[in-house]
Backbone:
């Protein structure tokens, strides 16, 4: 048996052919389409899956591009073929891995989450270090306060002793004159 896709060698050629002629559901054609996709690189398939016919400012194909390129988008035809020749789970997995914008956002959030976890761990280490430093400083201050209180008590005791001795001196001085 021969397939209408026998002369087609690349996934891009197959997608272009299907855009013009539609997809053949004959068993030999489906099997040949599976072979073509199976022998294509992931990069080629991902390009076809994401080509929306737009370019970036430099003229390169870009699925987020804003400038019309003049070429037909391949995304719709590519996924139409893919879901007919692959198991739906594999096709969905490919969609999620290479096209789904929510999956892309999820990857960005995972990266951001990992960065935030690193920052949080560092903040925890810093907090523990600051708490230890604070505890050390509080102990130092408590030690110095104890020394200060002892010095104040000694000064008060010395002042009291001076007052007592002055009174005694006065008594002795006044007592001799009378």
Residues:
């Amino acid at each position: 048996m021969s397939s209408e896709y026998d002369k087609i060698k690349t996934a891009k050629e197959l997608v272009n052919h299907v855009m013009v002629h539609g997809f053949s559901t004959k068993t030999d054609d489906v099997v040949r389409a599976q072979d073509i996709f199976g022998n294509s690189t992931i990069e080629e398939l991902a390009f076809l899956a994401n080509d929306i016919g737009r370019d970036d400012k430099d003229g390169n194909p870009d699925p987020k591009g804003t400038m019309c390129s003049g070429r037909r988008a391949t995304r719709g035809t590519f996924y139409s073929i893919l879901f007919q020749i692959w198991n739906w789970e594999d096709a969905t997995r490919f969609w999620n891995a290479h096209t789904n914008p929510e999956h892309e956002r999820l990857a960005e959030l995972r990266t951001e989450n990992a960065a935030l976890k690193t920052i949080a761990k560092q903040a925890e280490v810093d907090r523990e270090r600051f708490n230890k430093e604070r505890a050390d400083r509080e102990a130092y201050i408590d030690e110095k306060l104890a020394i200060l209180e002892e010095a104040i008590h000694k000064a008060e005791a010395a002042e009291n002793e001076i007052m007592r001795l002055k009174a005694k001196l006065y008594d002795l001085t006044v007592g001799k004159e009378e």
